[in-house]
Amino acid sequence: MGKLVRLFLVILIFSSACSSERDTFTNRTFHNITSHFNAYYLADVKIKKVEDIVKSNYKEDYTQVLPVFIPIDSASIQAGADTLQSARELASKAVEWHRISKWVDDSYYLLGKIDYLQAQFDDAQNTYKYVNVNSKDKDLRHKTLISLLKLYVDLQEYENANFTIDYLSKESGINDENRYELYRTLAYYYESRRDANGVIGALVKALEYVDDKKEESRINFILAQRYQRSGLDALAFDFYNKALAGNPPYERSFFAQLYAQQVAELNKSKDLKKVRNYYEDLYKDPKNKDLKDVVVYEMALFEEKQGDTEKTLELLHQAAKEPGSNPRQKGYIYQKLAEINLDEFKDYRATKYYLDSALTFINEADPVAKQIKERKETLDHYVFHVERIHANDSLILLSGLSPEEQQLVAENFIKSEEERLLAEAAAKQEPKSNSIFDNLLAFNDRGTGSTFYFDNSVAMQQGTIEFYRTWGNRPLQDNWRRSAASFQSTEPTIAAPAESDSTATDDSANPLNQLPDLESLLAQIPSSEEEINTLNLELEESYFELGKLLYFELKEIEASIDNLETLVREYPNSSRKPEAYYLLYLAQRDRGGNFQQYVGRLNNEFPNSQYTYSVNNPDAASGNLAYLASSKNYELAYNAYYNGNYQEARKIIQETLEEYPLTRNTERILLLDIMVTGKLDSRQVYRNRLEAFIENSKEEELRELARNMLRPMMSSEELAALNKPDSTALDSAALANPDPNLNPDGQNLPESPYKINDSNTHIFVLVMSPDEMEAATGLLADLEQFHAKNFPNARLRTGNMNMTSENSIYIISPFNNADKAKEYYSQFLNDFKSEGITDSIKNNSFVISIENFQQLNKTKNLEEYRTFFKSVYK
């Protein structure tokens, strides 16, 4: 009976201890133990497990300065999502079920850490701030503030980071563990701010508090790298040796020894043979079989320092073929090849292709990849135009030959390709050791490699080419497959082998796919005048763009002049001629040549070109001040034009172009000048200037506006050629009210006369009967007030006209595009009020592009357009 009473008392005590509300010694003890070991501890273990996954999945790139913190990979976090969710549930239970325990704030910290790992930065920030404000545990508060500092650096919120650093610098009693994390985070802060000295100083301090030997080795390696790049070789040597302590990964040990030798003696050694032997020994060491590309790459860099460019290139090509454990290393090898070809040989084409190869090995998110892309952009354009000029010139030349001569050229080209493939096969053929087994197998014939057929790549390539000559490029098939195909059909068609088919082969490895087909080569030669004209148009563009690129981007003045002179000589009617003359003027002036000839040509041939104004006034103002001044003049000319003062507008325009010939406003001013031409000069002059502007303008919006101005002068045939099929709107009536009797393919739909073009200039139209117009006495004043309040900077204008005897319209214009017009339409319906303007009148209003308004003005069919408007704009 006594035992039962005691058992009952124990159960009663622990039952009462389970309460999360009663703050008694028993309760606190129970909840402290339970929350610590059943919730907090397990959650912490799971979080560390995910952090270990991130570390293990990260591949250190020892050829670059290591980052202070290992980057968090979203893929690794996603892989550990279930583990983090379990950790979140455990930490939440420690908060909800054990509110009186001392582990609640620690559990909140874990929740913030989970949010941080899952990139929920706002939640993490709020949680860290909550713990900092509410926790009474100084160590936990310090740890939380350090985590918050790291988060601020991630988000590049440097003001908040500076405030946190300042606050922590005034805190006392920071324990060693937190000091270590604080100095590491400070190093991360300086790394983000690109302050190399700050990184070094913070990491040196972090070494005083580190207790993990592997982390100590990594920090020592980072310091060594940074000292080496700062030219402090003695310090770098010491820290590379320190990085060897603590049982680091083999790859880190390898690079630490390699770089230590570099800073200690390799760069300074006069015994070149000793240095080369050192690299040879590294290369032969079996432990370095996955690092051979690194060793050869370092050999190449050493030879580069000796000034042996030929040997450097040879070693870099070898390094690209060697096995390696880090794909990025291949990228750095190709990047180095690009650098040498650019700096030493000015070979832009080779540089471009080496950079292309580098990008296949370097991750897009890597900052190095971004630098390569920026550097490669100009080279991409260069190579595109160079190769297009070469190809088009060759094709045009071939088009002038007889069919027999064309076939002979194509056959010779195929023969040269065969010889190239054989040469490549011979280069791959490695001589075998002359052993007794070779003698027995191959009768000791070493003329072109092994005589065993499948060991001899030259023989295999020769056989493949002979097969191709005899039988053509036939797919690989077993006899039973051919027999079955012949049996099924007298004219069999052979399907491509499926992936699961055992006979499927890798087409890219098939040398036959590298051999061009005679028929396909002959088909590329242009046979009609239209095809030749297309090639010439491409040539015209490429000569111009190449000349421009060579002058401005690559600073190759002589090559730029050659290309631009070819353009003006071969294509005397080119619309690019004024700018080409201007570029030739600049290039000849730079080289001290005869630049005045181009001043004369511009004045004689293109007196109204902005480039003519520029060469006539070489000291004209430029930059932002010129832009602002030209903007004011543009506004004056614009107002003069719309007020009908065309001569005054032309005078302002010409004065502006003479004083500020080349600014960001130039094309707008030129288009306004063309609009003045439309009022003062002949229709043909107006059309010619519009066509030239469309051809040469760089601003798409202005080109589109010029196209809209040109359309009314074009014939129906020209308009039909201009409008692409996919720009034609579907019949609006069918869209708004589909007819169920139409057949499924929609062939009964009539073509709409209206076109969808959202980028076109639009107008707003308010339609009223004559009686309604008479009743709307204050409409104009109310519209001006409405515009001043809601669209003060839009420069909207109001006009009216009679559409039919039954309808008159008010037009509000201009709107740059459909979105602007729809914005006005929506606000008009909601906010505009005027005496006599009923809801019915407002609801019958619409927006319309200038192009479609011309069509509407012809047909006068308002209901047809309203149906289109409802289907497209609403």
TrEMBL record:
Species for this entry: Algoriphagus iocasae
Keyword presence, Signal: yes
Pfam families: TPR_6
Biased composition (Polar residues): 500-512
UniProt cross-references to Gene3D superfamilies, sorted A to Z: Tetratricopeptide repeat domain
Region (Disordered): 491-512
Keywords tagged on the record: Signal
Source superkingdom: Bacteria
The protein's name in its UniProt record: Tetratricopeptide (TPR) repeat protein
Record's keyword annotation contains Signal: yes
Annotated signal peptide: 1-19
